[in-house]
Please model this.
Amino acid sequence: MKYNTVLVVEDNRSLLSMLSALIKHQTSLSVEVAQSMKETLQLIKENTQRFTVAVVDLNLPDAADGQAVKAVTDAGIPVIVMTGSYSDNLRKSVIKLGIIDYVIKDNISSYYYLVGLISRLHTNRSTKVLIVDDSSSQRALLFNFFKTQLFQIETADDAVEALGMIESDDSFRIVLSDYEMPKMNGFDFTRKLRQKYPSDKLIIIGLSAHSDGQISSHFLKSGASDFLPKPIVYEELFCRVNQNLGILDKIEEINSFHHELKAAHNKLLFERGIVEDTLLNIRKAEEFNDENIRYLMSPVEKTAGDIMLSAKRPDGVLHCMLGDFTGHGLPAALSGPTVADIFYSMTMKGIVGSIIIDELNLKLVEKLPSHLFLATCFIEYNQETSSINLWNAGLPTVLHFRNKKFLKDYPSQTISLGITNDILPSQSGVEIKVEPGDHLYLYTDGIIETENEKAEAYGVEGLKSCLHDLLGKDLPLNYLIEKLQEFQYHEIQADDITIIEIFI
Model:
């Protein structure tokens, strides 16, 4: 394939092996090696267009003083020189050979720089540059500089011509613009470009022969990515160009990851929506018996971690259950259908509450992961005996009101369901004698843990006060939501809120 290989010419075998491995590991390019001038000439006799660049030692045993460098450049292969020492005269002499750059073989960071440069040069072959300058000599100089770095190059005499070129071809990644030009100066040109091409799409480098520092700042304020004074120094130009291209590459990489993450997120949302709708349809199919019951549910997400179940046994005894799975959303909601199936099927068979709650615990210990459990209250209300059997396993204290005033509370007597089967939740039940006009409130901790801007919790006392007002004024349960919103002010609801009122 064309331009898919790096030629490495180095007589030191260990250095040659290390450099070849680095290039293969950090780029997608192949590597061919030579340890002498003779081997180099044999390789470049073949198709030279396979080489995107060559890395050549300045001095070989059979080719001193850069002879191998000249042979490779004469073959039309771009060259990066490796040398063991540096001097200004050496720099001038190798630059005259038409090389891309030189690297001093003194530490590992030099080789990482070299591999990064190779990767950049390979990318440069598909990177378009536009040089805008009314001076033909400056255009020619910059053209040769960029040609050495393997870029695709176009030139324009003035900014108006350049705007037309960019309008018809928006694939340019770098624009170099002089300050003083006829028809339009570099500042106005930069501003016009930035109106359409943001800094993460196009690099603009301002140029000027003026030594006034305000020129550079004005270019940058107009939207330029960088600025260079004339006369242009070859090495400084490409350090700046490569630095800006590196930033652009990182931005494009981040944007690419962002698009991939967004696509994956949208897919998850779609699949989540299917699961949520399925769970909601299951819940809608449940035959919730609301006789003697009012309830309110305000989930954080579409599918709540709270679960409410109510049904009558064949003998007329009412079973009512409020559950709060660990957390909220799908992980919590997914276990809801299992609980509902056990609750309704056993209730319809006339099985008493104590057996149902023990069975629920056994099944949840078996099926739930260790971090997931179910805090629950289970009510068994017998109208004929005016009694309620209550099992509170991990939910906040149940509140009992009589004659619209608080009478008593019933705290949790055992741990939540699904943690261990070493205990029987049924053994922690209490019997409550009720009278007409009594109200019992079962609720999840999302209510009492609601916080205001001072991180103060609404608390059980806040709920008692709200329920006292609610009963005294005969208000709907939505009054609680209003009071919670008033309390938390601008804070966001953090947990599912559910309350069940059982009235006698």
